[in-house]
């Protein structure tokens, strides 16, 4: 079955760019929309945005000026870039696959990767 | 943007108990409501989509109901593996939004 694995630096300095990769196995990134979602410590989940292999994207307005989500179908990977990070960006970051039949339903998730923003 | 409010924020229960978690949307979202189970260090799991449809492989003790603004997740007979955090999400419109979560603990 489809499995997702997030990877990237666990520590990022304030004002720098957070870059994460989600690697997909058992499926193709060309078939679905792909989401990034995060959970700050002690808080609920926050939807960051999604991308489709065609280049179509949709971002949370609260992050839109700082976020880019892209895909490399040849590598079966999804990428997240978040610029000008602050301590408020400290969170567990998850990638998730949108259901083919129901938009916005995340039917497969990765285990998440913890990112801490600190000098 | 649609705000999602869950209650309670935490709940203590015993194996075999029936529990219900409530989720309220700040505006009508028809049945575009999904429920997820979260456990530390594990991939979140989709339980219920479209308010009441059971995701493949999810045990029948889980059920969902509601439409419009008020929704519930019910676990009919708690099993040890069900102690986790449960989170609702609206997929009616972007930005998609989640409730703050309900932590279900062993009594």
Question: What can you tell me about this protein's structure?
Answer:
The complex is a heterodimer of chains A (119) and B (107). In chain A, 0% of the residues lie in helices and 50% in strands. Chain A has no helices and 11 strands. In chain A, strands 2, 4, 5, 6, 9, 10 and 11 form a 7-stranded mixed sheet that branches. In chain A, a hairpin with a 5-residue loop joins strand 5 and strand 6. Chain A starts with a strand and ends with a strand. Chain B has 107 residues and is mainly beta. In chain B, a hairpin with a 2-residue loop joins strand 7 and strand 8 (70-75). The termini of chain B are far apart. Chain A binds chain B through residues 4, 43-47, 58, 60-62, 94, 96, 99, 102-112, and chain B through 1, 32, 34, 36, 41-46, 49-50, 55, 87, 89-92, 94-101.
Using the alpha-carbon principal axes, give the shape of chain A: globular
Query: What Rg of chain A, in angstroms, do the CA atoms define?
Result: 13 Å
Q: Please report the number of helical segments of chain A.
A: 0
Overall pLDDT of chain B: 97
- How many strands, what sense, and barrel or not for the largest sheet of chain B? 7 strands, mixed
Structural class of chain B: mainly beta
- Low-confidence stretches of chain A are none
SS element count, helices of chain B: 0
Observed structural traits:
heterodimer, A: 119 residues, mainly beta, 7-stranded mixed beta sheet, 4-stranded antiparallel beta sheet, globular, B: 107 residues, 11 strands, 0% helix, 50% strand
Topology, pairings included?
The complex is a heterodimer of chains A (119) and B (107).
Chain A: E1 3-7, E2 11-12, E3 18-25, E4 34-39, E5 46-51, E6 57-59, E7 67-72, E8 77-82, E9 91-98, E10 106-109, E11 113-117
Parallel strand pairs in A: 2-11
Antiparallel strand pairs in A: 1-3, 3-8, 4-5, 4-9, 5-6, 7-8, 9-10, 9-11
Chain B: E1 4-7, E2 10-13, E3 19-25, E4 33-38, E5 45-49, E6 53-54, E7 62-67, E8 70-75, E9 85-90, E10 97-98, E11 102-106
Parallel strand pairs in B: 2-11
Antiparallel strand pairs in B: 1-3, 3-8, 4-5, 4-9, 5-6, 7-8, 9-10, 9-11
């Amino acid at each position: 079955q489809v499995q997702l694995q997030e990877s990237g630096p666990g520590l990022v300095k304030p004002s720098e760019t957070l870059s994460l990769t989600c690697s997909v196995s058992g499926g193709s990134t060309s078939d679905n929309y792909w989401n990034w979602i995060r959970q700050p410590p002690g808080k609920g989940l926050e939807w960051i945005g999604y991308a489709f292999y065609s280049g179509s994207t949709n971002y949370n307005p609260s992050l839109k000026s700082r976020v880019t989500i892209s895909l490399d179908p040849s590598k079966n990977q999804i990428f997240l870039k978040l610029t000008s990070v602050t301590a408020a960006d400290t969170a567990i970051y998850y990638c998730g696959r949108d259901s083919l039949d129901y938009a916005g339903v995340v039917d497969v998730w990765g285990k998440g990767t913890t990112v801490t923003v600190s000098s | 943007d649609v705000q999602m409010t869950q209650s309670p924020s935490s709940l203590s229960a015993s194996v075999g108990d029936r529990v219900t978690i409530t989720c309220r949307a700040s505006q009508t979202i028809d049945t575009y409501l999904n429920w997820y189970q979260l456990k530390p260090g594990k991939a979140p799991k989709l339980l219920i989509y479209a308010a009441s449809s059971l995701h493949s492989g999810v045990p029948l003790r889980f059920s969902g109901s509601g439409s419009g603004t008020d929704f519930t997740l019910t676990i009919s007979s708690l099993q040890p593996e069900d102690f986790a955090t449960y989170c609702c999400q609206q997929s009616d419109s972007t930005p998609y939004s989640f409730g703050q979560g309900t932590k279900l603990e062993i009594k």
